User: Which sequence fits this backbone?
């Protein structure tokens, strides 16, 4: 399922930064519980929020999806 794969990718990138879910969510101005649901694959995330996450990692949207199945 795309939501689960996306969540795994986002979690992998966040963990590489060394930030907690809470600190990363604050950085990108997103509610922590919403962000946690994205990482767990429970949220059908909007394009606007995908852009926020990519910007938070300082990568393009395309790079955010790199390596996903």
Assistant:
């Amino acid at each position: 399922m795309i939501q689960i794969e996306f969540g795994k990718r986002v979690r992998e990138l966040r963990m590489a930064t060394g930030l907690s879910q809470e600190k990363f969510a604050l950085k990108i101005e997103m509610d922590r519980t919403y962000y946690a649901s994205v990482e767990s694959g429970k949220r059908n995330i909007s394009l606007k929020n995908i852009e926020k996450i990519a910007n938070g990692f300082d990568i393009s949207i395309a790079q955010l999806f790199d390596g996903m199945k």
